[in-house]
Amino acid sequence: MVSRKLVYNSHMTTKEKMKLITRNCQEVLVSEDLKSLIESGKTINHYIGFEISGMVHLGTGLMSMGKIADFVKAGVKCKIFLADFHTFLNNKLGGKWEDIRWASEHYFKEALIASLKCYGLTGDEVEFVSGKDLYDNHPEHWQNFMEIGKQITLSRNLRSISIMGKKQGTDVNMATLFYPPLQVADMVTMDINLAHAGMDQRKAHVIARDAIKKIPGNHQNPVAVHQNLIAGLTAPARQLPSSASLQEREESLKMSKSKPGSAIFVHDTPDEIRDKIKKAYGPPKETEFNPLLNWVKTLVFWGEETGELKIERPEKFGGNVTYTKYADVVADYAIEKLYPTDLKNALTDWLIEKLAPARVHFEIPENKAALVKMRGLLGIV
């Protein structure tokens, strides 16, 4: 698998751009607005923001950066927001400014560039912006923040703190309440018309679409694109009630950098990838909530019905087979014509090859040193 350099095709139709922008996504708020934005001929200003909270796993590295590759191919102007202030508000990395800012510039940004390389990009196609730089260079930001704050009720703000990974009803400090309006104000200050995140950020984007149109000024109301969340590799910690929504189930199973064994990181070695996949939760015949199948669907097939998954195994176990339809993978898994071991081996091979450019990036001496230091900050031996 060779990562090919992506080239923007300026002759794409609206339909072709819509497909690129929305594929492998769970939701678009709303499709009609996205179509109008494309047809308007305006520059599509995209942003996705990340807290600097830990190592970059596949949910960020392959899912989010893979979507950015789609956006770049569709001619979208992409921006990655390194949310240092938000990281501080959420008390990540101990809430230490010096660690947050060092990690943002020397580890996190480099890990995202490494991930972009897995999709044939170099990193130069994307603009990286830190919270500090944005706020220092745009004094109007704090007025935007206050204008947005005036449009959000306290009760709604409290309901939205789930975007920080906190449950509703949690006792929070005053600074925590700054987070949602600050996130929306970021979009205003950066003049964003395409907001991108996982489904876990939906509440922030709904607030943005409601609040931005109410504040003074001719501000763009962003379309929101929510990518699929990828499952963690470990078994669910608890059984959710049958009444739980699909979104609640998916979020309970999502990959987390704070759950040991649930995540593969973009710079993991081939041996680390093999070991984690070997231990992954993947019951035979289970096709509904199975991380192995989730990864095949969202990463290998990139959310499409067709793609390619190669299974290599001895003849006595069925012999080699190449799947070109995801439905066939699921059907064979359900009847044990395709075994968990088969799927684990295929995923392992695919990931080792896909992540090769990221491993090369972290062989650069300064990046290798940054990875060692980041592990130290996180207490990882």
Strand percentage lies at 5-15%
CATH architecture assignment of the largest domain: 3-Layer(aba) Sandwich
- Give Rg in angstroms: 21 Å
The parts where pLDDT drops under 50 for at least 5 residues are none
CATH topology of the largest domain: Rossmann fold
Helicity level: 40-55%
- For the terminal residues, how far apart are their CA atoms? 32 Å
Structural class: alpha/beta
Provide mean pLDDT, rounded.
91
Strand order of the largest sheet: 1-6-5-2-3-4
Order of SSEs = HEHEHEHHEHHHHEHEHHHEEHHHH
Q: How many domains, in number, for the residues?
A: 2
Q: What is the CATH class designation of the largest domain?
A: Alpha Beta
- Number of H- or I-type helical stretches: 17
Shape: globular
Protein name: tyrosine--tRNA ligase
Catalytic activity: tRNA(Tyr) + L-tyrosine + ATP = L-tyrosyl-tRNA(Tyr) + AMP + diphosphate + H(+)
GO molecular function: ATP binding; tyrosine-tRNA ligase activity
Pfam family, one: tRNA-synt_1b
How is this structure best described in words?
One of its GO terms (biological process) is tyrosyl-tRNA aminoacylation. Keywords: Aminoacyl-tRNA synthetase, ATP-binding, Ligase, Nucleotide-binding, Protein biosynthesis. It is an enzyme of class 6 (ligase). Belongs to the class-I aminoacyl-tRNA synthetase family. Residues 240-265 are annotated as: Disordered. By secondary structure, this protein is an alpha/beta fold. It folds into two domains: 14-227, 3-Layer(aba) Sandwich (Rossmann fold); 246-264 and 269-354, Tyrosyl-Transfer RNA Synthetase. Helices cover 46% and strands 11% of the residues. It is built from 17 helices and eight strands. It has helices at residues 14-22, 31-40, 58-73, 84-89, 97-117, 131-137, 141-149, 154-159, 179-189, 202-211, 246-253, 270-278, 291-300, 326-334, 340-354, 356-361, 365-377, and strands spanning 25-29, 46-50, 78-82, 126-130, 194-198, 223-227, 306-311, 321-325. The strands form two sheets. A six-stranded mixed beta sheet has the order 1-6-5-2-3-4, sandwiched between helices. The protein has a two-stranded antiparallel sheet with strand order 7-8. α9 (179-189) crosses α10. It is globular, with a radius of gyration of 21 Å.
